[in-house]
Amino acid sequence: MNTPLFTPTNLNGLQLPNRLAVAPMTRVSASPEGHANSTMARYYERFARGGFGLLITEGIYTDAAYSQGYFRQPGLSDREQARAWQPVVKAIQGAGGRVIAQLMHAGALSQFNRFRDHTAGPSSIRPRGTQMTAYGGEGEYPVPRAMADADIAEAIRGFARAALLAMEVAGFDGVEIHGANGYLLDQFMTGHTNARTDRWGGTLAHRAQLTVEVVRAVRQMLGASAPVGVRISQGKVNDFGHKWPEAEAGAARVFGALAQSGIDYLHVTELEAWRPAFGDAGPSLLQLARRHAPGIAIVANGSLHDPLRAEAALADGADFVALGRGALSNPDWPKRLKEGRALAAFDPALLSPVGDIKPVEQQR
């Protein structure tokens, strides 16, 4: 099939055979100590063999303090965890894919942390919603402790050190900073979870500053040559329908600040990427990102598993299309499209009763 989705490109020098990526998806299949393993290697390798040019990992916790969010979540908080990623990375690269490590700090949404017996976030405000049972949670989220300046500095250092371990020890091809879906950086950016009155609170520009500082710390640690991106969303895992109250003006400020921070790409995710970002009409969040972050590559994510939707996302300004559910059901989605074969529908059993990697997903 002739489609722009198969056009080769590069991301800050990283050569990629097409515009198709696997979106980050929590799979809670690491060891209790946060080590990646052979189950994960086989799972990720399937996507590369199936034709995806780029894979973005599940969220990887970054430090031995407050960043871990889930039991059996993989980490990059020390060299031993980084070395455990090496076989996974080599399997992906050996199958022709390239892989980016998504670096994540759960903050107040942590459901399990083997390093701390309490959670921490921008303010002592209980998160909305309830914990996710698919990832081992139950009941309300606890009220987090408000992070002190030392905690914030530790979180920034954790991102930077994890980025270095990802590139120099594990062998990843780039890193993505998780600033979306209600986790720590998103908590700082969101008005109803950030009631601070210091430099990290108040206006949207101040609330977005932590994400910018993390980008700068990571860029300083890695230098200019490593691909670095940021994932951004409105909705959150505990508040799917959330919309930025600042609307288009807020989007312009956020995307503009991130575009100037030193990133190579923005990963924009919505439930349905083509929908208007605010209200019943107007531009999508993808289109707003394209408008306010000129010169920055855009990864679009959100129910784009239909090939026509994926192509339309490119027309709307995306450089890459990232598939989640579509990739889970079709780890060979690019090959199927190229060969004109039918795509399988998403099977909810892949994420229930626990969202871990199922035996069928380890098949070679």
From TrEMBL:
Domain named NADH:flavin oxidoreductase/NADH oxidase N-terminal: residues: 5-343
An annotated Gene Ontology molecular function: FMN binding
Alphabetical list of InterPro entries matching this protein: Aldolase_TIM, OxRdtase_FMN_N, Oye-like
Membrane-spanning parts: none
Domain of life: Bacteria
Protein name: NADH:flavin oxidoreductase
Protein species of origin: Variovorax paradoxus
